[in-house]
């Protein structure tokens, strides 16, 4: 009966959060087994979680970076690094998304922030609108895979899994996805005989490589100071950060400090300096330092607007989580999850078959539900089966999030589709057709990540 109410509300066009909460309330009223106030109690309990505090702060950090002119700096850095290659702006698009993914944590922020700059630049250089939209959409899926990631925070809360381990698990798969997308750009560049979009500049390329070297070398320097000198970690971090600002002032790097954001977050979490939730606050502080004090591209009027946008987005996300928590609890209480588990285990006891079926289901669900709602509904149903079959919860979390990110590129409910159609001025149908070829590298990545768990679990097992 619960499923009937939910499908009825969904088919009537109600938002998914209201459909979940309404179906739960209708079932309680009809069955008479529980008092109606249980709905409020369970919804409040569903969002009364310390890890969920990371959600508004990661959203705020991404919004601050978007509004502080950081996206332009990232684009210029990627242009210096790979813009001279054949099909250069396609590669720039992907590298820019890799960097921005380390700050925003969402695919939609990536598509709306960097996408606006990238699509305009690609069209000005003679690329078709369809190709520009396709590569932008595909690269936007990196946002929630490369840490930090809002879907990982939601999954970690629902699955009682380490958010820090999930963040680390996304690094190598994110790199794999970026490589496969760049190979796809190289294929199109060879097929269409595209040349470079900017002339190779040894000075610009060298400066970009120095920035990368500083980003990679900074954690090693910090480790050396702590280990060899014996300085306290907190003091060492501040000294090393001060050195970064000095280098940036001397050499006037394009995007050194923004690129350091994921390094600071992952480094802080793996060394125990702060939790993922505290890391989200640190990301906001870092963004405010860059926007207000260093680049001076933020003002208080913009800050108030960013905060209001963050409140609006956070309210939507947390309402979905609250509604899904009561719906998931009702599914468990009515035995639906147990029945599904029994049916699946009767059908197969092979983990690879289950993962294949789960991928098909999650790809289908991702076409119709927003990722946060899909995660909160699917985790109570699928995760117990995965654990029984020996699938690691961290590995399964990454597979689930990637499936749902691919779903963002599909009609009828793909939010990235709507964002890019508006940014590029394309019809919804043409945007959909433009994205179809880019599903190939994404699905290949999904297959590798699904059936090569060592790729996902190597870093988490090293640090956790």
Description of the molecule:
By secondary structure, the chain is mainly alpha-helical. Helix content is 79%, strand content 0%. The chain is built from 24 helices and no strands. Helix 10 packs across helix 24 and helix 18 packs antiparallel against helix 19.
Quaternary class: single chain
Taking all Cα atoms into account, the compactness measure Rg is: 23 Å
What profile does the largest beta sheet have?
none
Spans where pLDDT lies below 50 across 5 or more residues = none
How do the SSEs run, as a string of H and E? HHHHHHHHHHHHHHHHHHHHHHHH
Q: Based on Cα principal axes, name the global outline.
A: globular
On the 0 to 100 scale, the average pLDDT is: 84
Task: List its traits.
mainly alpha; 464 residues; globular; 24 helices; single chain; 79% helix
Write a concise synopsis of the structure shown:
This protein has 464 residues and is mainly α.
Q: How is the secondary structure organized here?
A:
Blueprint: H1 2-11, H2 16-31, H3 38-47, H4 54-67, H5 70-82, H6 88-104, H7 107-124, H8 129-140, H9 150-159, H10 163-169, H11 171-192, H12 202-229, H13 233-251, H14 256-270, H15 276-294, H16 300-333, H17 336-347, H18 351-366, H19 371-388, H20 393-407, H21 415-424, H22 428-435, H23 439-451, H24 453-463
Helix pairs in contact: 1-2, 2-16, 3-16, 4-15, 4-16, 5-6, 5-12, 6-7, 6-8, 6-11, 6-14, 7-8, 7-21, 8-21, 8-22, 9-19, 9-20, 10-24, 11-23, 12-13, 12-14, 14-15, 16-19, 17-19, 18-19, 18-20, 19-20, 20-23, 21-22
């Amino acid at each position: 009966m619960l499923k009937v109410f939910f499908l009825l509300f969904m088919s009537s066009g109600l938002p998914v959060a209201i459909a979940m909460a309404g179906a739960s309330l209708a079932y309680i009223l009809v069955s008479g087994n529980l008092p109606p106030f249980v709905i409020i109690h369970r919804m409040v309990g569903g969002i009364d979680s310390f890890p969920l505090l990371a959600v508004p702060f990661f959203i705020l950090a991404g919004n601050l970076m978007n509004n502080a002119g950081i996206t332009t700096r990232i684009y210029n850095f990627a242009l210096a690094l790979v813009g001279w290659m054949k099909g250069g702006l396609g590669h720039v698009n992907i590298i820019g998304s890799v960097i921005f993914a380390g700050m925003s944590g969402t695919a939609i922020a990536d598509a709306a922030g960097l996408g606006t700059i990238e699509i305009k630049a690609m069209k000005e250089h003679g690329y078709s609108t369809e190709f520009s939209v396709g590569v932008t959409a595909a690269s936007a899926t990196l946002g929630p895979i490369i840490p930090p990631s809002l879907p990982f925070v939601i999954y970690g809360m629902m699955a009682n899994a380490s958010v820090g381990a999930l963040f680390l698990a996304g690094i190598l798969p994110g790199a794999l996805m970026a490589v496969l997308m760049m190979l796809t750009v190289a294929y199109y560049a060879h097929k269409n005989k595209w040349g470079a979009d900017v002339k190779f500049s040894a000075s610009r390329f060298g400066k970009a490589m120095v920035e990368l070297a500083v980003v990679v070398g900074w954690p090693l320097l910090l480790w050396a100071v702590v280990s060899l000198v014996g300085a306290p970690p907190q003091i060492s971090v501040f000294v090393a950060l001060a050195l970064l600002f000095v280098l940036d002032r001397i050499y006037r790097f394009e995007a050194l400090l923004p690129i350091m954001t994921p390094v600071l977050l992952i480094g802080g979490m793996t060394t125990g300096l702060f939790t993922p939730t505290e890391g989200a606050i640190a990301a906001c502080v870092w963004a405010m330092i860059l926007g207000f004090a260093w680049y001076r591209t933020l003002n208080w009027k913009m800050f108030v607007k960013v905060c209001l946008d963050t409140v609006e987005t956070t309210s939507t996300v947390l309402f979905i989580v609250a509604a899904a928590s009561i719906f998931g609890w009702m599914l468990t209480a009515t035995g639906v999850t147990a029945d599904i588990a029994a049916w699946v285990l009767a059908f197969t006891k092979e983990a690879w078959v289950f993962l294949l079926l789960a991928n098909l289901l999650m790809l289908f669900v991702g076409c119709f539900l927003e990722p946060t709602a899909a995660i909160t509904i699917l985790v109570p149903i699928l995760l117990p089966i995965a654990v029984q079959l020996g699938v690691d919860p961290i590995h399964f979390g990454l597979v689930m999030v990637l499936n749902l990110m691919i779903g963002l590129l599909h009609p009828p409910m793909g939010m990235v589709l709507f964002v890019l159609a508006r940014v590029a001025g394309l019809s919804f149908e043409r945007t959909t057709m433009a994205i179809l070829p880019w599903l190939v590298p994404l699905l290949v990545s999904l297959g590798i990540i699904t059936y090569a768990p060592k790729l996902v679990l190597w870093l988490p097992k090293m640090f956790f």
